Amino acid sequence: MRDPYQVLGVAKTASEAEIKKAFRKLAKASHPDSNQDDPKAQERFAEINAAYEIVGDKEKRGKFDRGEIDAEGKPRFQGGFEDFQGFSSRGPRPGPGAQSFRWTSQGGAGQGAGDDDILSEILSGFSNRAGFGARRGGPRPQAPRTAGEDVQATVAVTLEQLMLGEKVQVELPTGRTLEVSIPAGTRSGKQIRLRGQGWASPDGGPTGDAMVTVEFVPHPLFKVEGDNLRIELPVSLDEAVLGAKVRVPTLGGPVTMTVPAGSNGGRLMRLKGKGLPTALGGHGDLLVALKLMLPDEIDPDFEALMRRWREAGHASVRGPEYGA
């Protein structure tokens, strides 16, 4: 494989953030899903992932920079048996009286007394660097595959979409656009995990996930209070004094509600089951706060009535706690 720095298009002095940024950009542009007409897209994508596996990992990057591993992550031998007298096929043969070594069928060695520790140290050194097991021909341990990185995304959802159970489009940093169903009971700020929709693994491991944060679009009429919705409903003076049947908007369409006679402004009415869908399959309630509204122009007869009401000395509506 080519030099991983060249594959990612970064300098050897690049920071971790610069390397990650370059990888994401190249992976997004070369992803096979986005290049279905290009037969070499899969090969490029695999090369990019393999390069990031080396220089995107602090420990492996250090080993590569020091020449301990190659561009494929395989160990490079830093010396051979030639470094040790008696092992080299080209070195001097042991002379008379020197201790000789012979390999046994178990993969160890037979030798004179006192050399066990030296040979063990040598084999251990090669085992650490080259991945050989303690026994010749024994199974090589398989390194766990690296999982792909998760990605973060945000999706704006209207209250109407949530009420109707409509799917919403989510744009992911990988370049994919998905249609996602928002589960009942989801509230603003909650995250939804989309399995396998993150970055691909650099070495064939599991693909990362997409973590999608739901954000509610502010509504001109309704405020969200948990599973409930709240709305301020303007009512006229005569409706408040005499009572009336009024139309109230809900997310499912307008309904008729009775305003009791003698209702004060701020009175809270409750419409059962007209709130948001819940995780248990039901709905919250709609809380209707009455907002008393006077006409823009005061009728002279109404004004005269209010003057007579004041002159009659009716008790104040404010108690002593308000300084009345």
Helix content: 25-40%
The oligomeric status of these chains comes to: single chain
Strand elements, count: 13
Q: Unreliable stretches, pLDDT < 50, 5 or more residues? A: 79-138
Strand content: 15-25%
Q: Which architecture of the largest domain would the CATH scheme give at its second level? A: Sandwich
How far apart are the first and last residues' alpha carbons, in Å? 87 Å
Which sequence of SSEs, written as H and E, runs from N to C?
HHHHEEHEHEEEEEEHEEEEH
What is the count of DSSP helices, taking H or I runs of 4+ residues?
8
Please, how many domains? 4
CATH homologous superfamily grouping of the largest domain: Urease metallochaperone UreE, N-terminal domain
* Strand line-up across the major sheet: 8-9-13-12
Assign the CATH topology of the largest domain.
HSP40/DNAj peptide-binding domain
Based on CA atoms alone, the radius of gyration comes out at 38 Å
Average of per-residue pLDDT values: 80
The major sheet is characterized as:
4 strands, mixed
Structural class: alpha+beta
CATH class of the largest domain: Mainly Beta
The general outline is elongated
Protein name: DnaJ-class molecular chaperone
Region (Disordered): 70-117, 129-149
Organism: Kaistia geumhonensis
InterPro entries: DnaJ_C (IPR002939), DnaJ_domain (IPR001623), HSP40/DnaJ_pept-bd (IPR008971), J_dom_sf (IPR036869)
